[in-house]
Amino acid sequence: MFGLSQKELAILKKLSTPIKIQNYLDKMPINWEKRGETYMSVRRVLREGKMHCLEGAFLAAVALLLQGEKPLVMDLKTDGSDADHVVTLYKRNNRWGAISKTNHATLRFRDPVYKTLRELALSYFHEYFDNRTGKKMLISHSNVFNLKRFGTRWITAEEELFDIMEAIDDAPHFKIVPKKNIRFIRRADKMEKKAGSLIEWKKTNPRT
Questions:
Q1: Which structural domain, as residue segments, surrounds residue 24?
Q2: Average pLDDT over the chain, rounded to whole?
Q3: What is the distance between the alpha carbons of residues 24 and 56, in angstroms, rounded to a whole number?
Q4: C-beta contacts of 80-83 below 8 A and 24+ residues apart
Q5: Given a cut of 80, is residue 207 above it in pLDDT?
Q6: 208 inside domain
Q7: CATH number for the domain including 168?
């Protein structure tokens, strides 16, 4: 199925709900890309035992696909002072939620309570800031992006998936903050920056 081995399918089929998928992502170390930039397929992630947000989004998407759901992701774009963030989308009773691989305390799983994608994207706005300056960085979000357009390459490819990353990045995005309101945005304060400094996986971890 989708070019996956029986061993790979056995792992992924156990991830039968968004919560189980998120729990699995949380247990896997962050990919610090110590040997250079990577965009690994699900097969490579399972083999390497580490992932960053886009790689985690691929894994979450194929787990949902195996449960008969669409492999949908959404890109959260920053002002360039930090990396974008990609989450996997799911719906329950006509409400959106998100599965998210992150090393930070706040850019994580979202329960299915959001009526629109904009509502979901806005839930990440306040905590998506530069921890040095406190500047809020989230500027836009993409529409639903269906990974099926790339066949199964994102599931089993051995090469880096730069083209898929670029396609997600180049997709139409919708602004978060009205231009006239940018000057009213407050920077994160000392306490918020302290909370924002919490990370789950350190670069010194030999597994990453």
A1: 6-196
A2: 96
A3: 10
A4: 81/130, 81/135, 81/137, 82/128, 82/130, 82/137, 83/53
A5: no
A6: no
A7: 3.10.620
